[in-house]
Amino acid sequence: MASSFVIACVGKPSAGKSSFLNAVTDASAKVGNFPFTTIEPNEGIAYYPVACPCAKMGVSERCKPRHGWCEGGRRHVPVRLLDVAGLVPGASEGRGLGNQFLDDLRHADVLIHVVDASGTTDASGRETRGYDPVDDIQWLRQEVEAWIWGNLDRKWAGVVRRHVAVKASPVETLHAQLAGYGTPRDVVQRALDRLPRELVGEFSRWEAGKELRRFVGAFLDERFPTIVALNKIDMADSDKNISAIMKRYHSKGGALVDGVRIDNIVLTSALGECFLRKMQKQRYISYETGSDDFSTDAPGLKPLDEKAGRRLETIRDLVLFRYGSTGVQEAIVKAVDALGYIPVFPVKSLSTFGAPQQGAAFRDCVLVRPGTTVREFAKKLHSQVIDRGYAGAETIGGIQLGESDVIVAGKNNVIKYTVSE
Hints:
Layout: E1 6-10, H1 17-25, E2 43-51, H2 53-56, E3 69-71, E4 74-83, H3 98-104, E5 110-116, H4 136-153, H5 156-166, H6 170-178, H7 185-193, H8 197-201, H9 208-223, E6 226-231, H10 238-249, E7 265-267, H11 270-281, H12 306-323, H13 328-339, E8 342-347, E9 366-368, H14 374-381, H15 383-387, E10 390-395, E11 399-401, E12 414-419
Parallel strand pairs: 1-4, 1-5, 5-6, 6-7, 8-12
Antiparallel strand pairs: 2-4, 3-4, 8-9, 10-11, 10-12
């Protein structure tokens, strides 16, 4: 079974979005088949590393994931990426591919905003020199906010009248309007919790241009957590642009600025990662994504020509040694971490950690939202069999789990379900 959430890669044209997607989804042969039934042309699969219980339980040699892979207790779990149409200023008014972009966002749970830190593309993605990208993060946020607010604004008077007539709660009224954005009720509630209590208490008097607009900003913070990938970090003007962006988004206490926390800004070189992966795949170097270096003298490697050698040394000097990695793996990790997802390992036996009489252990790993209960996961795992026939659940050590127990990583996230006949 696969995790259902989606990471959307967003940004203006030519920011390096497609290169970023290629850098994080170039699966090697050992990965095996994808866990998703349908992969559209603008989608891909990346891998999120988690601690696998196989090492702790002493069964690493039998750990054989159905999807992804596990090495030394480090499990690489597949996650879904969506390459969203390039956004330009004015998208909320239909400019460019704005309507397509904004519609694609309905399917996303978290955003990775790829920003061209080099200043070699303008706000519309046209090639230039000396462009200052410091505003790129802000205007993307403003476009998404204008899109959602505009949709609500057009019908707000009628929404308020119905709210008063049926005596609904603010969360009920807003959830009904925002359900089309793939929004769970708890997200709407958390957005309201960001506002002063007295403001929520005056909900029936909200004006679209004031209180509603303020709510939309809070809603975006909850609905679309955003990771910023400052890309093309090895180009000439990137250093000064990165410094300006970091200065703008630095805030005491790590508060959100334009929906972004400074610790969720990652420095990346997508093209550098693509080239390293290509050289690794062709057996010219030994390299692992996320590493701070590569090797050219490991056994079995082919000799490099001068041109490839020079390019590798440039990547080593300007990216790996300077920043510690190409940053692309870190961006994926931060995107999943921003959602707080928890890895769950359903097993059929707590003695073999697999199906009885079978050698393979920990075949499946599913990432679930924080707060998911044991029974909710049963329904997610198999609504027709496990949920309907639910007779109990237990975890390592034979500890019985209650239906309402919240799943916690490292505590009760290895689960065996018992099903009635």
